[in-house]
């Protein structure tokens, strides 16, 4: 299902969306943790970005498995890619709860201590997701380009 589109592998197409959207969600989460005044205005956008990125991760892994049948085992990249969904889900959940609790607090129904705890968890989830997306991307680049670049070095 996630093999080719017009003769081009789906994997690199979808991966580029994940590689852009997930780091944007990471940066957005850090921003709304550090600047609470931005939560009301930008929080829903951050959550939407995290949601789209999270939804695309399984498409990226499924298309990667299809590509693996054509070009061979990417090694460590596949295992790291399979783990990325958990980091994306943690980022999505914590950023969504942060925005939700902030709205409840604004309505006079939430506690500041709970909000701070979730903000700390969201920050941890953002850093972890950022590190993991880097690890997945780096291992993918090494799998795809490592041999070609190394063999053509001057």
Automatic annotation (TrEMBL):
Record-linked Pfam families: DUF2231 (PF09990)
Keywords: Membrane, Transmembrane, Transmembrane helix
All residue ranges annotated as the DUF2231 domain in the record: 7-151
Coiled-coil annotated spans: none
Highest taxon, organism lineage: Bacteria
Transmembrane segments: 13-33, 45-64, 84-101, 113-134
Keyword Lipid metabolism: no
Annotated protein name in UniProt: DUF2231 domain-containing protein
Organism, as annotated: Nocardioides aromaticivorans
